[in-house]
Amino acid sequence: MIKAEAKSLGFLSCGISKAEFLEEEAPRLENYLKKNMHGEMKYMENHFDKRLDPTKLVEGSKSVISLLLNYYPEERQREDSYKISKYAYGTDYHFVIKDKLKDLLRFIQEEIGEVEGRAFVDSAPVLDKAWAAKSGLGWIGKNSNLLSKQTGSFFFVAELIVDLDLEYDTPVTDHCGSCTACIDACPTNAIIEPYKVDGSKCISYFTIELKDQLPQEMKGKFDEWMFGCDVCQDVCPWNRFSKPHNEPLFDPHPDLLSMSKKDWEEITEDTFRKVFKKSAVKRTKFSGLTRNIDFLKED
Asked: Which part of the chain is the 4Fe-4S ferredoxin-type domain (predicted)?
């Protein structure tokens, strides 16, 4: 019943796992932080216990309901443009998904009764991909993204953590095989070995998270990405199966698709506000985006 409702709310798929301590993830997360692969993203050091144990986030929680929402666009930016990650084309996904999750929680409460739960969209200490993999929605690929045989990887991952006993799904097997497309294609060699990404070397990290000057040694390595990066997804063979989303809120502002490099280089704060009115790109602010464009321009 919950899965059918998730589908009707527009989610791509829904899987359910038992809310318990993520034993396998604990040493992995510890190692990641110890090696400083999170760079300046200091928030990742906070709430270590909560990241691994959903019962510390939602008291008495029994189940993690994981959901995927497609964002693969029908149309792409023009060829002679600086690039924006496809997930940021339309309205900021946090708002879009949060509303759908609240609707799903409301439905569960109406149908089942007194159910306590919380909605999470990557803004809290929850290991989204680990939960999605645990509930059979895909496997974690060599580029550390969640991959699905049916739909590739151009989707958002979110969850409801609830104090309700449900039937649990089982993980699927890994289907990366001997493929190394993502590792070979990464412009900054951020995928340091299969299944391990050094976040502090990723173009998305530099163009979104890093607030300081961009490091000179990265000159010429950004492959013309000014916000985020999709290279490891674009080359993944499983993304042959990506189909355009049908969420009107994810449709881009028309100007976004038509802007050339020259337009981006001359962007004003007014245009920035108009094109990215409700977009996740606002996170980098006008100053951050122009910093990134200047860095690319000097190549």
From this structure: 164-196
* Residue 229 annotated as binding site: yes
Q: What is the mean pLDDT of residues 172-192?
A: 98
- The helix (run of H) or strand (run of E) holding residue 67 is strand 63-70
Over range 275-297, report the average pLDDT.
95
Residue 84 CB contacts under 8 Å (≥ 6 apart), including other chains: 77, 225, 226, 227, 228, 256, 281
51 annotated as a binding-site residue: yes
Listed by start position, the domains of the chain span 1-299
pLDDT at 125: 85
Please enumerate in sequence order all residues whose Cβ is within 8 A of that of 184, keeping only pairs 6 or more positions apart, or say none.
235
Active site residues: 122
Q: Can you give the three-state secondary structure of 244-262, one letter per residue?
A: CCCCHHHCCCHHHHHCCHH
- pLDDT digit string, tens, across residues 104-155: 999 999 999 999 999 999 878 899 999 999 999 999 999 999 999 999 999 9
- Look up the pTM and report it: 0.95
Kind of pairing between the strands at 155-162 and 117-120:
antiparallel
Name the residue among 13, 43, 4, 41 with its Cα closest to residue 211.
41
How would you class 163 by CB atoms within 10 Å of its CB: exposed for 0-12, middle for 13-18, buried for 19 or more?
A: middle
